[in-house]
Write a structure and sequence with these properties.
globular; Growth Hormone, Chain: A; mainly alpha; 0% strand; 20 helices; 480 residues
Length: 480
């Protein structure tokens, strides 16, 4: 790999200077695909407290709801793992732009079909299929952004691409807040004979329109075209062979990439998304306090405990209180996501300052401390909503921001003929490890989300160690 400093005139330019209109267009289209990609994933997260109880026919506080939601997460992660690998290989063989079209059509169609689910198992199966497209789109888009950008711009552009995910999360939060958090609109939708959460899934068909723009505007990267020409002349250069990822010189990159992604995705689904519960729990406590519903404590008689649970469900189940709690949950999600978005955008700049490995270590170590602060100190105590609102963006910055590093770092580790395959495999095999974690928590442990977060937070320390074994790619051209 050549060092970018070998071209003095190039190295003096700022990351945004000399970028062509077409390169900006690639970034825009890839980012929009990722926005809708994340929307399709997060629409379930934002609506699961309403969707799964409806499908199961039980109260939202029933333990089966949490178990089925964890199972749905697990199947979503399994689908992402399969789709990321399959579509990553396909993109190395038939092209980035063509494969991006297939992935977007895949996740759009099955998200829309989710609006018609009648049973919990149907939603779980559809989450698996949606995730196949979701995992594939990231692998293709991250490779394409890396390949069309100059070396000086690659890290920042990759971070911007991955940071666009926050708009998908915010879009999902706004959609569900409008459909469920608005009492009047909720009632109107219900009177029309629809479940409000189903409308959110039906909207998921809209990203399919983006595929027309991709077909019209995008061409295959020059480096991919050159890789195809080399493959015709040399059988050993054939693209998209997964087996090469486990042979020298790719093995170390593959192991480090898979481990980093597994840590990042396990902590995202097991820690980060529960940051949004901070203001939700505070709002629930305030509602119960105002209604005079007081927890009798662990030493109380069983009859008193049962009475408390009945009063709690009745109080939190009114339309007004349900909407109040939902608004608090959405505010938590927004604050968490805004902070995460900043962490994602700035990863590229930080990695140019500290190196790719240094940036990962920085994010992982501070994330560990913030998880302890939020889940061990602030949430168990009577912390004011204002303090929680101030901490949540910082929490989001470090627990989510490291994910931009996958879009920056993974494509830099593999040659063009294996870039989609390698980046897709690393990122999406991380989903496989996360799926295992969710099956454990869904079937075996069934602990509170806050306890789960504390159990998982040492993984951040492991991530800071694992990255030390990776190759530093700052200041280098992509390997051909």
């Amino acid at each position: 790999m050549a060092n970018i400093d070998s071209n003095p005139s190039e190295s003096k330019l700022a990351w945004y200077e000399g970028i062509s209109k077409y390169q900006w267009l690639v970034l825009l289209i890839a980012s929009l695909g990722w926005v809708f990609d994340v929307f399709e994933g997060q629409i379930f997260v934002a609506s699961m407290r309403d969707a799964m109880p409806d499908l199961l026919g039980v109260n939202p506080e029933d333990k089966s709801v949490s178990a089925w939601n964890n199972i749905a997460f697990g199947f979503f992660l399994l689908g992402g793992a399969l789709g990321g690998v399959v579509f990553g290989v396909i993109s190395d063989r038939i092209g980035r732009s063509k494969t991006m079209i297939y992935t977007i059509l895949f996740y759009s169609m099955f998200t829309c079909i989710s609006a018609f689910a009648q049973e919990a198992w149907q939603m779980v199966l559809l989450r698996f299929l949606v995730a196949m497209g979701v995992g594939g789109e990231w692998a293709v888009a991250s490779a394409m952004v890396a390949e069309v950008m100059p070396a000086r711009s690659r890290a920042v552009m990759g971070s911007i691409f991955h940071a666009s995910s926050v708009f998908g999360t915010l879009l999902a939060a706004a959609t569900i807040a409008m459909l469920i958090g608005n009492v009047e609109l909720n009632a109107q939708i219900a009177d029309a004979g629809y479940d409000p959460w189903r409308i959110g899934f039906a909207i998921g068909v809209l990203p399919a329109i983006l595929t027309l723009w991709i077909r019209w505007k995008l061409r295959e990267p020059d480096s991919w075209v050159r890789a195809q020409e080399r493959a015709k002349a040399d059988e050993t250069q054939r693209p998209g062979r997964i087996g090469e990822l486990f042979a020298a010189p790719q093995l170390r990159a593959t192991l480090v990439g898979v481990t980093l992604a597994t840590i990042g995705l396990v902590t995202f689904w097991g820690i980060h998304i529960y940051g949004k519960n901070a203001l939700l729990r505070r709002a629930q406590a305030d509602v119960l306090l105002q209604a005079g519903v007081i927890d009798p404590g662990p030493d109380a008689a069983q009859a008193d405990k049962d009475a408390f649970q009945d009063d709690k469900r009745a109080t939190l189940g009114t339309d007004e209180n349900k909407a109040r709690v939902k608004r608090a949950e959405m505010l938590s999600m927004v604050l968490n996501t805004i902070g995460g978005g900043l962490g994602l955008v700035l990863f590229g700049w930080i990695s140019n300052m500290l190196g790719r490995k240094g940036a990962f270590i920085f994010y992982h170590l501070i994330a560990f401390g913030l998880v302890i602060l939020l889940f061990q100190v602030l949430l168990p105590s009577d912390t004011s909503p204002m303090v929680l609102a101030l901490v949540l963006p910082v929490f989001g910055f470090f627990t989510l921001g490291m994910h931009a590093g996958y879009a920056v770092y993974f494509p830099e580790l593999f040659p063009t003929r294996l870039r989609g395959t390698g980046a897709g495999f690393c990122f999406n095999m991380g989903r496989l490890g996360t799926a295992v974690a969710f099956f454990v928590f869904g079937f075996l442990v069934q602990i509170a989300p806050e306890t789960q977060a504390l159990w998982l937070c040492p993984l951040y320390l492991l991530g800071a160690v694992v990255v030390l074994f990776g190759r530093e790619t700052r200041g280098t051209e992509l390997p051909e």
